[in-house]
TrEMBL record:
Single GO MF annotation: acyltransferase activity
Domain Acyltransferase: 14-336
TM spans (from-to): 17-40, 52-72, 92-114, 156-178, 185-201, 213-235, 242-260, 266-282, 294-313, 319-340
Protein name: Acyltransferase
Keywords in alphabetical order: Acyltransferase, Membrane, Transferase, Transmembrane, Transmembrane helix
Pfam families documented for this protein: Acyl_transf_3
Amino acid sequence: MKTLSETLARDGNNFDLIRLCAALAVMLGHSYGICGARSFELLVRFTHRESFGSLAVYAFFLISGLLVSASYARQSSPTRFVGLRAARIWPGAIVCAMFTALVVGPLFTSIPLAEYFSNPATYRWLAHNMSLIGSVGGSLPGVFDRNRLGFVVNGAVTTLPIELECYAIILIAGTLGLGANSRRGTIIVVGVVGVIFAYFVKHPPVHITLGGFFVKRILYSFYPVPFFLLGMLLYSFRTRVILHWLPALSLLVGYVALRFTPMGTILLYPAFAYGVLWLASLRQLRWLKPKYDYSYGIYLYGFVIQQTIVAVNPTLSNYLSVAIAIPITVVLAALSWHILERPCLIWMHARHRSADLQAAEVSPA
């Protein structure tokens, strides 16, 4: 039995393993739509509500709510928090967008290359997907136009603007003195944002889209944002949250027994969230922890690689297609991590250490 606080300690959890599994689950979930599978996936048939992909995204947002809150609590300034978040998100997203528009696009467009590169839509797509502002992941001129989901070149990245807006909640809360180290402040922030979110879900804003912040995603039965807010709340109560197999098993059994009733719908999400945290605390899974964090790269490149495979051979089953796509995606994710993501994070941390040393040298103490 461990507390959430103990689980959040460095090298004391399996969050990297869970995120890796979640990224692969997203690819499996997307394969049904990309390949036009004739049957619903196993998890949809079981829950009648959620898929591998939707639950994986909920796991990402729950873990982000916890770890990004912890990141803000560790930083000495909002500027450092922004720098680290930017170093984690944008370099990988920018290079993925360039790879998609400037490598995959020319190879798989059905229009002449001169027309592709002279089309303003190509550069609008590239600008949006590099900035992660506004609508991302849409279509490129002529690219995958024979694919079932050709209208979205890279559907996975559509959640990234929402993720960034969730980071902004933590930043604004911390700037107002209601940061992750304040339980009362976190309760206020989560409560206010929760009420605003619930209102705009029922009454969608006309002129403010925020990248789909208030929109239920296609084939989802719930929303990712509440899981991020739950992660924020759990972080503030981390010393009091006990992770044990008995509540996890009880919630799972309760859900399975009642899954065809309204109570089953209510139990699904608490059972899922607590189960994710309990799995993160298990020492028995520690030996499976990946040495490197390829999950973000897999999430970035998985969808577009699956699209290319379907474009080359549209007769493949979704299982065979995803089996081919996974090793290719993992290679791209590894390159992204070792050449880009990790060096950017190391550079940003080094800048912060250098600033700390300079401050210490000029300090009166």
